[in-house]
Automatic annotation (TrEMBL):
GO biological-process terms attached to the record: response to heat
PANTHER family, A to Z: 26.5 KDA HEAT SHOCK PROTEIN, MITOCHONDRIAL (PTHR46733:SF3)
Domain SHSP: 25-136
Gene: hspX
Organism (species): Thermus thermophilus
Name of the protein described by the UniProt record: Alpha-crystallin
Keyword terms of this UniProt record: Stress response
Key word Metal-binding present: no
């Protein structure tokens, strides 16, 4: 049915669509990696997917109350027949939880997943504070 509506045929439509997608994704300047943060009794565990990045082109640092993960996935120059991999700068900043310790943070990269272990400070739980409601 598509051939009846579009005079170029299915292969040309598909090629045009793929070229449009390729052009759209080439303009991507910063890639935000997928991540998850889990809470444990004595630490937080931040897992970030960074496939194709090694320790040599990945940086983990603290900037104030933020944990920053930055790197670059560089494209190798070669003849390609198909390219669906997105290359570019990887950047993500995470606000540290209030009870996170800035000392003792460790990072480990395995199988394309960066694991950042963030120690927690032990504080006694604060009791709730009741605020009286006045009638106007």
């Amino acid at each position: 049915m598509l051939e009846k509506l579009w005079p170029f045929g299915r292969n040309r439509v598909r090629k045009a669509f793929e070229e449009a997608l390729e052009k759209a994704f080439k303009d991507v300047e910063v890639l935000e990696p997928l991540s998850e943060l889990s809470e444990h009794e004595d630490h937080y565990l931040l897992r970030v997917e960074v496939p194709g990045l090694g320790p040599e082109n990945l940086e983990v640092r603290l900037e104030g109350d933020q944990l920053v993960i930055e790197g670059e996935k560089r494209e190798e120059k070669r003849t390609k027949h198909l390219s669906e991999i997105i290359y570019g700068r990887v950047y993500r900043a995470y606000l540290l939880p209030k009870d996170a310790k800035k000392e003792g943070i460790t990072a480990r990269l395995a199988k394309g997943v960066l694991e950042v272990k963030i120690p927690r400070e032990k504080h006694p739980p604060e009791p709730p504070v009741r605020i009286p409601v006045e009638e106007a």
